[in-house]
Amino acid sequence: MRHRDIVILTGAGISAESGVPTFRSDDGLWLGHRVEEVATPEAFARDPAKVQDFYNQRRRQMAEVQPNAAHRAIADFAARFGGRLTLVTQNVDDLHDRAHAETTPAPGFELIHMHGELLKAECTATDRVLDWTEDLDAYHDSPFSPDGWLRPHIVWFGEFPLHMDRIERALSSCDLFVSIGTSGEVYPAAGFVRRAHMAGARTVELNLEPSLGASLFDACIHGPATEIVPAFLNSLDTNAWPNADSRA
Ligand code: BV8
Q1: Whose CA is nearest to atom 37 of ligand 1?
Q2: C-alpha 122 to ligand 1 mean position (Å)
Q3: CA of 180 to the centre of ligand 1 (A)
Q4: Which of 33, 115, 175, 205 is most exposed, with the fewest beta carbons within 10 Å of its own?
Q5: Considering 96, 115, 140, 153, which one is annotated as catalytic?
Q6: Are 59 and 66 in contact (CB under 8 A)?
Q7: What's the CA gap between 151 and 128, in Å, rounded?
Q8: Is the Cβ atom of 180 under 6 angstroms away from ligand 1?
Q9: Strands (DSSP E) found in the chain
Q10: pLDDT in 10s for each residue of the chain, 248 residues
Q11: 42 C-beta neighbours (distance < 10 Å), count
Q12: Strand 84-89 versus strand 109-113 pairing type
């Protein structure tokens, strides 16, 4: 079957080989912190300096990392694919943006950051968003309102993900859903495979190891993203599904 409407969901695993730490390592810490200490509105209210510093460190790291072969394979595919391609990323790094900036995506391509972006800041009073590459102080004056501060433009746990209407529309019409580099632990993203399946899409997981939701996929391909993502996307060109495991 030649696919005409594809949704790709990516998570921290696609950026791992670029040197960007993933969220869930064995000790349950994330860059030395528990998630609830640094990635919730309550944590920001309780200790804004700690939360700003956590994101300042990650924002600074963006200057030291580059897109890898998996990011570039998706960008190259987006440039040659004649159908509709919606790339939904949970990641807040700009590696997909940079990979696609090196190509000319075809008209049917859209990149959606559902959990925000490290290189943007947001005014707490007006919700207005602006590009931001510098450190943010605990109480950083907002250029939009004297009553607000600048916070990271990041969707924290307990906050609504962004662009869910666009994501829902894409999931309801796709004929192929590809999940890349995500543990399937965070909702609503972890439930997208079910939505796609209900829409009649074929579903495939590309991940280093079986994710929590692996059994929900029609096919699973396991290995490092820089190897399995280019191979899989090339197989779509020739319409030959790769030798993928059956349901994990
Ligand atoms: C919300 C920004 C209401 C922060 C992030 C049921 C329904 C709805 C909500 C919930 C629910 N149950 C629980 C909830 C609440 C909560 C939630 O999911 N909690 C979890 C912990 C149980 N969800 C929320 O609060 C969300 N908001 O629900 O609002 C709502 C409900 C419905 C509809 C609309 C609204 C908001 C969640 C957003 C939180 N913010 N990011 C920041 O970045 O600082 S989430 C964070 O986790 C990142 O975005 C990250 O991308 C994401 C998921 O993690 P992964 O990307 O999967 O990363 P992880 O490390 O876990 O896994 C990496 C994978 O890669 C692994 O599988 C590994 O094997 C693989 N890998 C590693 N190396 C490689 C590799 N694969 C290939 N190659 C490699 N080299």
Answers
A1: 157
A2: 21
A3: 13
A4: 33
A5: 115
A6: no
A7: 11
A8: no
A9: 5-10, 84-89, 109-113, 116-123, 129-131, 150-154, 176-180, 202-207, 219-222
A10: 689 999 999 999 999 999 998 987 666 667 788 888 899 999 999 999 999 999 999 999 999 999 999 999 999 999 999 899 999 999 999 999 999 999 988 899 999 999 999 999 999 999 999 999 999 999 999 999 999 999 999 999 999 999 999 999 999 999 999 999 999 999 999 999 999 999 999 999 999 999 999 999 999 999 999 999 999 999 998 765 554 454 43
A11: 12
A12: parallel
Atom of ligand 1 nearest to the CA of 23: 60
pTM greater than 0.85 (yes/no)? yes
Amino acid identity of residue 68, one-letter, is N
Does residue 179 have its Cβ closer than 6 Å to ligand 1?
no
What is the spatial distance between Cα 227 and Cα 48, in angstroms, rounded to a whole number?
Answer: 40
- Among residues 69, 70, 65, the alpha carbon closest in space to that of 92 is found at 65
Residue 95, both tokens: 């590696």
Expressed in angstroms and rounded, the spacing between residue 89 Cα and the centre of ligand 1 is: 10
* CB 227 near ligand 1, within 6 Å: no
Task: Pull the structure tokens for residue 145.
Answer: 């309102």
CB 188 less than 6 A from any atom of ligand 1: yes
Separation of 157 CA from ligand 1 center, angstroms? 9
**Angle (nearest 5°) at CA 176 between 175 and 180:** 160
CB 143 near ligand 1, within 6 Å: no
User: Hey, which residues does 10 pair with through a beta bridge?
Assistant: 89, 180
160's CB contacts (< 8 A; 6+ apart) are: none
Whether residue 167 has its Cβ less than 6 Å from ligand 1: no
In residues, how long is the chain?
248
